[in-house]
């Protein structure tokens, strides 16, 4: 167990460095989910981002045997374990979801996947919830524990920082591109104006 935890921590550090250097948002989100599942040896996982206007959680990336079936699906604020993690800012562990009244089983009905155990961790930036990271079903059939919770909470925090950096980079890159387009337009207008002035001089 000690060796396994040491390996998990080493992997977590390595992955954190990799995330910090990834600025393409879609690639980053997929890497976060696959890495979380790999570190915790989970069968499936998902990453939901908070929509600022509505507070809805939207499935952006899923990992596992039915990975693509939930993309774009929305959860209203407070819905399910992911909604609870987002509303409280605390990680949620449930090792028998079907015995828990909070279980929102629409996802399993939609995908045909069977969720047994689930852990959801909020992704926070300066006390602002930007999303939720979920891992589902340990491959060996055991339940999630407090150590797993601490691990995924730390990982979710690092992931949130990486996501925010990628978003800021995208905004900066877009703003720069728009500025270049503006300058190109101005240059074209100036060039056209110069041609008109030259023609007027000739006519005079």
Layout of secondary structure:
Elements lengths: L1 H19 L4 H16 L1 E9 L6 E7 L10 E2 L4 H9 L3 E3 L11 H6 L6 E8 L2 E11 L7 H58 L1
Helix pairs in contact: 1-2, 1-5, 2-5
Give a written overview of the molecule.
A hairpin with a 2-residue loop joins strand 5 and strand 6. The chain has helices at 2-20, 25-40, 80-88, 106-111, 146-203, and strands at 42-50, 57-63, 74-75, 92-94, 118-125, 128-138. The protein has 204 residues and is of the alpha+beta class. The mean pLDDT is 82.
Shape: globular
Oligomer: single chain
Mean pLDDT: 82
Query: Could you tell me the number of beta strands?
Result: 6
Q: Any low-confidence stretches, pLDDT <50, length ≥5? A: none
- Calculate Rg over CA atoms: 23 Å
**What portion of residues belong to β-strands?**
15-25%
What kind of sheet is the major sheet? Answer: 6 strands, antiparallel
Numbering strands along the chain, what is their spatial order in the largest sheet?
A: 3-2-1-6-5-4
The structural class is alpha+beta
Name the helicity range.
Answer: 40-55%
Elements, N to C (H/E):
HHEEEHEHEEH
| C-alpha end-to-end distance | 91 Å
User: DSSP helix count?
Assistant: 5
Structural descriptors:
5 helices; 204 residues; single chain
Sum this structure up briefly.
The protein is an alpha+beta fold. The chain is 53% helix and 20% strand.
């Amino acid at each position: 167990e000690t060796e396994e935890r040491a390996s998990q921590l080493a992997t977590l550090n390595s992955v954190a460095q990799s995330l910090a250097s990834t600025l393409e948002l879609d690639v980053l989100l997929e890497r976060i989910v696959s890495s979380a599942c790999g570190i915790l040896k989970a069968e499936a996982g998902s990453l939901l981002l908070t929509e600022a206007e509505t507070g809805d959680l939207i499935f952006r990336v899923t990992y596992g045997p039915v990975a693509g079936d939930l993309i774009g699906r929305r959860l209203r604020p407070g819905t399910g374990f992911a909604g609870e993690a987002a509303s409280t800012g605390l990680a949620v562990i449930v090792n028998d979801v079907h015995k828990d009244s909070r279980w929102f089983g629409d996802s399993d009905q939609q995908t045909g996947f069977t969720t047994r155990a689930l852990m959801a961790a909020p992704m926070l930036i300066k006390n602002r919830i930007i999303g939720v990271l979920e891992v589902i079903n340990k491959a060996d059939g055991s339940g999630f524990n407090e150590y797993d919770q601490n691990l995924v909470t730390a990982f979710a925090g690092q992931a949130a920082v990486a996501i925010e950096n990628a978003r800021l980079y995208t905004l900066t890159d877009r703003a720069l591109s728009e500025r270049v387009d503006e300058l190109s337009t101005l240059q074209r207008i100036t060039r056209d104006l110069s041609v008109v002035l030259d023609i007027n001089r000739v006519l005079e």
